[in-house]
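Data availability (excerpt). The following record was deposited with the supplementary files.
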Amino acid sequence: MLAAMIAPVLSSGKMSEHLVLDTNVFVAALRTGGGASRAVFRLCLKRRCQPLMGQKLLTEFEDVLGRAELFRASPLTAKEREELLDALLSVCEWVPVFFLWRPNLPDEGDNHLIELAVAGMAAALVTQNVRDLRQGELRFPQLSIQTPAEFMTRWRKQYGNDDDPSS
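Predicted structure:
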């Protein structure tokens, strides 16, 4: 199963959209055998989307990966989950964040996601937590905050079914 997720990293494809993946999408992709979170993750590994990464988000990814209780139902071992994070990081664009847009969101811990998306000129911030992230005091019209399902619906309309695991 792990090889099937990492192998697409070797495929060459033109990156089309910059996006920020919230850690909850990564966790969902690793815990389930399919679904929209896994499809978004697969698009990143296939280099069809350009995921953005910053220091705070990387720290959050590493922290979440260390929480064994989140992955009790996961079919992947801890080593395989670390390899998938490494695979994701290998296709991420590192974005330094020099400007903080604070205060903005009700949950201070989510502000770094908006800041990374703005600094990296992301088209989308993909998260399971759209309700909180859409409540920001500041508006960034170029940034769409979407659930994985919303992102994949838009992606398929615009680009086709590039998330097919057999492709």
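Summary of structural features: The chain is about 45% helix and 10% strand.
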